[in-house]
Design brief:
Blueprint lengths: L35 H26 L15 H21 L5 H7 L1 H6 L6 H33 L9
Helix pairs in contact: 1-2, 1-5, 2-3
Length: 164
């Protein structure tokens, strides 16, 4: 870095970088944003995985309490943890697959077992139902946001990501 006598050298900050704002070069590209639909759907599925883990804990804790279970009784603690654990893992895996062609369909299909968990823990009908509504809203709202972003990028190509 050469400096002329009329311009003093920029003093490095305490982090070792030159002080002052960093401005992008004219050739720098704007980083494209991730699709909102995929972000919303992934977040919903991850939150559902936590919900299933907590519902599994409830089912395990209430397994010996009379009149506290739903219409379906799992025979043992092992089966409770197996069903809840598999469902939670499936939800986590699907949260990473929502960007693939079948990811949204699989995410929609997995809403059925989340609701069916209400047969073991009755409150899951309510909470699982709220998450099904959240899933539908995240798919619809995320798609609308992505369409609006695409329309804006088409109208303003100079600010669009990866514009030449």
């Amino acid at each position: 870095m050469s400096t002329s006598p009329s311009q003093p050298a920029a003093q490095p900050s305490r982090h070792g970088r030159a002080a002052g704002p960093v401005r992008p070069s004219p050739g720098d590209r704007i980083k494209p944003k991730k699709p909102a639909k995929a972000q919303f759907a992934s977040t919903t599925l991850l939150l559902e995985a936590f919900l299933v883990v907590f519902a599994t804990l409830v089912a395990y804790g209430l397994r010996d309490v009379p009149y506290s279970r739903g219409p379906l009784e799992l025979p043992s603690a092992t089966s409770i943890w197996l069903v809840g654990g598999v469902l939670a893992v499936v939800l986590v895996v699907l949260s990473r697959m929502v960007g693939t062609p079948g990811g949204y369909v699989a995410g929609s299909v997995v809403q059925v077992p989340v609701l069916a968990f209400g047969l073991v823990v009755p409150m899951m009908f309510v909470v699982g139902g709220l998450f099904v509504v959240l899933w539908v809203v995240s798919i619809r709202l995320g798609g609308r946001i992505d369409r609006e972003r695409a329309a804006y990028d088409a109208e303003h190509p100079e600010t669009a990501p990866n514009a030449d």
